[in-house]
């Protein structure tokens, strides 16, 4: 067996210029399969870890996925706001431990602005119930003296090169309309959050009172003509928030989650709904699952084409190697040993392609990971292969072994006489 393996290696090395293309195609298919599987796994993990420790998300009555997307991932917009009076009533439920209101809608140079209470920084969890931590500075406390304080995510700070003490101007809505800036009420960066790998990294956080202050002299999405309220005048106004976009809710016990959900859904004051983040995520994955399967199918087709190339190259080389195989037969090699020789050769080529593809995937994650995180907010990490990735590699290896049996069977059927006296 060792002698046949050595012979197979020497034979493959002698034809390395041709077989290198096959190795490259197998490596490319491995890169595509592993890369897509890693992206799929990490995207799911990033979404799942974006919020933890929150039992319910409350918002205006809409779709559960839509509520999850704009409340947690800041994607899309709310169909309607909800009254703070309603949240105070929900906070009075015996099973409710805490409520953190969220107000969305404004932006800063393409990054979403979220107004919330100071409790957000202590109540919000991500990953394995991890707390938000500061890389530099401090949290805002919601006081009037710090009305125009802001805490920004790590990605905002890195991409816009912000430091503590910098002053920034927020924009009304998406900021795409000229003159939609709240230029008269700039904010000071007092804190920069540590990286979390969640939408928090891309968010500018201000207090609920600050959100009220910058909109005192606005109506219907535009500044009031001839009416201007200075930053100091805003401090003396009633800044109690009356409407918010959504709220995160924590319960005293998880056993009460369905009863509180039903109570919110049946709230008589206004049409509200409460969703379980995990259940809404499962619904989201069921929707995007078809796209995931389509991408994996395309990668599988690339792998099949690569293995078909392996069969074609080896079969095409058989006619040139008929004398070589005949000499082996005349030296005492059995047809099975000839078949085994070509099968081992194919297995070596497939294994080398898999190794190079795995290495290329690792390098691609190291090189492109930071770029993808800054562009799309997708944090790619390299770790030990997951069971699904191991199954993909095993499938490629087994397919390569099966593909190598085709030329091996052809060589098995070649006769000694045909090899010594090839037809012209």
**DSSP strand tally:** 16
User: With helices defined by DSSP (H or I, 4 residues minimum), what is the helix count?
Assistant: 14
Question: What is the element string, with H for helices and E for strands?
Answer: HHEHEHEEHEEEEHEEEHEEHEEHEHHHHH
Mean pLDDT: 81
Shape: elongated
State the end-to-end distance.
34 Å
Largest sheet: 10 strands, mixed
Strand proportion, as a percent range, falls in 15-25%
What is the subunit arrangement here? single chain
Unreliable spans: none
- Return Rg in Å: 31 Å
Helix amount, in percent?
Answer: 40-55%
SSE-based structural type: alpha+beta
Structure write-up:
There is one protein chain. This protein has 424 residues and is of the alpha+beta class. Helices cover 52% and strands 16% of the residues. The protein has 14 helices and 16 strands. Strands 1, 3, 4, 7, 8, 9, 10, 11, 15 and 16 form a ten-stranded mixed beta sheet that branches. Helix 2 (16-48) packs across helix 12 (335-376) and helix 10 packs parallel to helix 13 (387-413). The model has no long low-confidence stretch (mean pLDDT 81).
